Amino acid sequence: MNGRLRDQGPTLLVATLAAAFGVALLQVTGILAAVLAEDDVTGSSGTVRLMLGIVASVFITIAVYVSAVVTANTVATIVAGRTRQIALLRLIGSSARSQRAAIAREGLVIGALGAALGAVVGSASAWVLGEVGVAQGVIPSVERSLLDPVVLLPMGAVVLTTWLAAWTGSRRVLAVRPVQALGNSAEADLDEVSSRVGRTVAAWVFVILGALLLVLGVLVGLVRPEGVLIGLVGGILSFTGIVLAAHRVMPPVLRAVGSLFGGRPAARLAAENAVRHPERSARMTIGIVIGVTLVTTFAVTMESYRTMLTTAFADEPALQSEIGPMVDGTVAVFSALIGFSAVIAAVGLVNTLSISIMQRTRELGLLRALGFDRRQIRAMVLVEAAALTVAATATGLVLGVVYGWAGAQSMLGSVGGAPAIVAPAIPWLIVAIVVVAAALLTLAASVAPMRRAARVSPVVALAVE
Amino acid sequence: MQIQPSDLGLIARVAELGKRYGSGSGSVTALDDVSLGLRRGEFTAIMGPSGSGKSTLMHIMAGLDSPTSGRAWLGDTDITELSDSALTVLRRRRIGFVFQSFNLVPTLDVRGNIMLPFELDGRRPSRDEQEWIDELVETLGLGARLRHRPHELSGGQQQRVAIARALATRPDLVFADEPTGNLDSRTGREVLGLLAAASARYGQSIAMVTHDPIAASHADRILFLADGRIVRDAGRSSAEDISAFMLGMETAA
Lengths: 465, 253
Ligand SMILES: Nc1ncnc2c1ncn2[C@@H]1O[C@H](COP(=O)(O)OP(=O)(O)OP(=O)(O)O)[C@@H](O)[C@H]1O
Ligand SMILES: [Mg+2]
Hints:
The structure holds 2 protein chains of 2 kinds. Chain A has helices spanning 2-7, 9-38, 45-81, 83-91, 96-135, 152-169, 197-221, 227-244, 246-259, 265-275, 278-312, 317-358, 361-370, 374-412, 428-455, 459-462. Chain A is mainly α. Chain A has 2 domains: 1-180, no CATH class; 195-465, no CATH class. Chain A starts with a helix and ends with a helix. By secondary structure, chain B is an alpha/beta fold. Chain B has a single domain, classed as P-loop containing nucleotide triphosphate hydrolases (Rossmann fold, 3-Layer(aba) Sandwich). Chain B has helices at 54-61, 84-94, 110-120, 127-139, 155-168, 185-202, 213-216, 239-252, and strands spanning 10-21, 28-39, 43-47, 69-74, 77-78, 95-98, 173-177, 206-209, 221-226, 229-235. In chain B, the strands form 2 sheets. A 6-stranded mixed β-sheet of chain B has the order 6-7-8-3-9-10. A 4-stranded antiparallel β-sheet of chain B has the order 2-1-4-5, covered by helices on one side. At the A-B interface, helix 10, helix 13 and helix 16 of A face helix 2, helix 3 and helix 5 of B. Bound molecules: adenosine-5'-triphosphate (ATP) and magnesium ion (MG).
């Protein structure tokens, strides 16, 4: 069973990243709060500390959530690849429950390990950051212990979610029937398509309700800036709905993107591969969708805000030159914080893609035997990775622009006195960064699998297991 | 002038072929100085005990693996000298495969699987070829199944799709490695009948590895391998004769 834990290396990485992020963020807010308390003239440091805490927990929640999705996906992918082995064990008398429990236990161990590692890494990074800040004279030196019990919160969250995610991801173990050890090898692909009606209904309710609230927010925003609060609730609701329905939303997007790559056999097979497990592709992409959507939403809102301010203060260049860096700084910090979740999602995508390529060794051998050359095999892997990242990025960008505009409109629609339509301003720099990051991710995700896939010899297709 | 394999009516030939796995004391000799020619239009069965080198021989003849010594030709092409990409094109255009299992690409439907060799070649079938494919689909009884994906088909149906794909390009030679190994005996016999008919009716050259004397009795010629050598080269034989010889081989060993 050592093999199992070795498979889980990426899961450990994901848990560690999430925990490190959470711990570092809390440590940094702790340092900031201590600095503020030092010269507390207004007595407002309590409020600021609370605000910082809330903001930090939002980002931590996003990161932990994304890492849980990634972990569940990795486990599900590994389990799918082990169907035969599991079936064989079932055939000789092992119970499905005990096999699933073993996987969940691994999740618990890995979660704990990741949380501990993450705490060390996160605290160390925060400490380094603090020291650099002091050395640069940005913040005064303050006494503060790194052993803040509050970091137990993200650690606990990571342990718990990794455990739960391993449990959820291993659900498929229960569906493996012992005869699958004997069956012939044509794989039933649409294995995981769920007919979980409850989830679909909930998703629809969330999306519709959320969209209505967004519209209401925009309308209210024409007269009062509080419209943005209604819009915020609408945004959270509708986006939750989209995340819930990802297994329905993403496959059509993936198909559309896949068809962009043309009708050559390598491209066509790649496009099919990208949707062969709708649940899996949904989970592979949703983390990136979340990250890109949040970054874009925030950037579009801020950009619209900036455009509005620039127009309003057109004849006060001094003020303008102050606003610019302030907006840029805020966007940069928030993007980096959200971007971290996207990094976790990217780790998941890289990992799932290479596992699923490894699981397709025989199929690759078959293609080689039938006359796919190495270049075509490599192209196929690259296009599959590209289809996944392009679909995720495009979805995120579109959603982000819509949400960002709704946010800007409902917040700023009434600011000029009379109701006004705020034109959505696209922050091209952020969009460019997102696109470049997606391209890099595609390459990163496909390098190793491409190499491995091209090495597969056609003889493996003929070999009987 | 050198005599080419095709001058002798051969579709494939190997000469003094040797294949060795590993080196030193742990090495295994899978093929030991094998020379043979497969005649154009014939259905040849390759038999022999497990581990006798049947699959290895077939892999080398199909350009999937390279020999340690000796040469192999497909038609007049010396395939032991070809680069990987030339071999790829050769497999695409001039060779068909039917494996024991896992023959089909799971993400493609039946039609997509049958058309795959053409698509890989970046072309559409000519009108003549299309008629041939339609005829194959008809004969193999796949007409109603063209839009189905492999996991929706029985093992026998999957194997028929594999045969259609292997014959679609009218390759020089079709290799089949235990094509009936995963099928029940009735379905297996059907599949064999189809292969034999392809050879008899359309002059398709076929080389088939099998353990089954009944399967081999469909062939025009039967080669027996033992310990990496050819020990018998027989014409069409009855299943009883084949069984008797196989039994004799086992007791001799
Ligand atoms: N990749 C390999 N590495 C080492 N030895 C191998 C390898 N492939 C085959 N062999 C050995 O070569 C010999 C011939 O194998 P081959 O697969 O050709 O036998 P076969 O006649 O097809 O047997 P079977 O009827 O069981 O399929 C065997 O002794 C086998 O162990
Ligand atoms: Mg064999």
